[in-house]
């Protein structure tokens, strides 16, 4: 049996959908398992022991007609028995249909249903603590067998060399083991998914005030200006505790550094999913237009906690569509003031950060 799983676009989605390979490997140990993903997302699933081959989609080349035709021929030449299309959009439906696979599985949508042999309606409520993002992915495996589990936790496969290199990097920066260390997700994947910087600065101030933790900022070089703007908004004491020049220069390095942190606090997104996959506790701030129930993966109120405007002021978003909220995201973010989230944040810090006996979190 030869199986292809398709999950394009975002890093968090690619990591989350990788759970299918663990389930497939256990059920079909001799099957050949391939993963079709965008090439920039490869690092998050690199070294996954359950994946035999990656089929890398390059948007700059493969979305143009000549490149797309060549890509489709490449997929068809693999002679897949099964294709599981998790992405479930028009372009992935075309790839699935062109594969020629005998069994083609995806979600039920009126505009793509004829491309598949088996389709499933998305679940509206979760049955486990894993959350809908996990359960809806596992649901697709019912197109092969009813004996798959309902949930599996995503995993990241770091090498010992990567973890050791990150530890050396931290020590060279003056961060010693045993000191509380928090990775801060200061920027979302877009402005509409980014907690306002003045509010984020107050969150960082609060982290240092309550824990004396060393802080690392998750940003990439092209976001340095925004990170510097945030730094200027922080209190002097906070700035002293921020190791601004210590950041992941690649996705693998970011994950290796995060694996040494006591927690990740910040905007909900791919970084949060990566931290969870490495069993690093997370406190995430959801953007107003995202449904928290869809991506609150493995939240237990202790090790993994999140906040959303709906938790405090559900009337503000009542009956508004996602696009309407996204257009006014900053306006709705302003309603989610830091004072609202400090109470659940303090509870999270009590559960996850080693306490200085002379400075307890109140």
TrEMBL record:
PANTHER family xref list: ADP-HEPTOSE--LPS HEPTOSYLTRANSFERASE 2 (PTHR30160:SF7), TETRAACYLDISACCHARIDE 4'-KINASE-RELATED (PTHR30160)
**InterPro entries in alphabetical order:** Glyco_trans_9 (IPR002201), LPS_LOS_Heptosyltrfase (IPR051199)
Pfam family for this entry, one? Glyco_transf_9
Q: Which UniProt keywords apply?
A: Glycosyltransferase, Transferase
Name this polypeptide is given: Glycosyltransferase family 9 protein
């Amino acid at each position: 049996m030869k199986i292809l799983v398709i999950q394009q676009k975002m890093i968090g989605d690619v990591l989350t959908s990788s759970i299918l390979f663990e389930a497939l490997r256990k059920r079909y140990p001799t099957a050949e398992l391939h993963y079709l993903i965008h090439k920039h997302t490869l690092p998050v699933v690199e070294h996954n022991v359950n994946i035999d081959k990656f089929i890398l989609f390059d948007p700059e080349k493969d979305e143009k007609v000549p490149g797309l035709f060549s890509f489709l021929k490449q997929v068809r030449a693999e002679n897949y028995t099964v294709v599981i299309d998790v992405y479930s959009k028009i372009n992935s439906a075309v790839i699935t249909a062109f594969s020629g696979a005998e069994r083609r599985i995806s979600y039920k949508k009126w505009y793509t249903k004829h491309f598949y042999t088996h389709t499933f309606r998305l679940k509206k409520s979760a049955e486990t603590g894993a959350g809908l993002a996990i359960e809806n992915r596992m649901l697709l495996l019912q197109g092969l067998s009813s004996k798959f589990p309902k949930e599996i936790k995503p995993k990241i496969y770091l090498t010992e060399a990567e973890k050791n290199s990150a530890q050396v990097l931290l020590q060279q920066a003056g961060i010693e083991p045993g000191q509380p260390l928090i990775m801060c997700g200061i920027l979302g994947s877009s402005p509409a998914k980014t907690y306002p910087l003045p509010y984020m600065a107050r969150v960082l101030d609060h982290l240092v005030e309550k824990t004396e933790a060393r802080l690392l900022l998750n940003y990439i070089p092209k976001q340095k200006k925004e990170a510097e703007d945030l730094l200027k908004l922080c209190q002097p004491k906070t700035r002293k505790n921020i190791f601004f020049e210590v950041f992941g220069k690649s996705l693998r390095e970011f994950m290796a550094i995060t694996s040494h942190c006591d927690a990740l606090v910040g905007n909900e997104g791919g970084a949060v999913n990566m931290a969870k996959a490495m069993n690093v506790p997370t406190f995430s701030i959801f953007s107003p237009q995202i449904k928290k129930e869809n991506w609150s993966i493995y939240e237990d109120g202790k090790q993994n906690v999140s906040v959303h405007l709906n938790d405090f002021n559900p009337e503000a978003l009542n009956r508004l569509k996602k696009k309407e909220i996204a257009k006014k995201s900053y306006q709705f973010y302003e309603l989610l003031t830091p004072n609202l989230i400090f109470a659940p944040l303090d509870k999270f810090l009590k559960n996850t950060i080693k306490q200085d006996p002379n400075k307890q979190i109140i």
